[in-house]
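Before surveying the methods themselves, we first show a specimen of the format, giving the amino acid sequence and backbone structure tokens:

:::
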Amino acid sequence: MSVFLTVENFTSQFVVTFWTPIFVGIFIAIVTYALWPRNQAAFDEASKIPLREK
């Protein structure tokens, strides 16, 4: 039983110490891209797509 607990603890620590900072960095990059002033025109145009008539 202790072998499974050790593997579980190792896996949990690995995920927390390795993947969490990577996903936080990806999230920050996406938010930065979305809020960058140069991209505002493209996002404004895309936000009007559902309101267009065909």
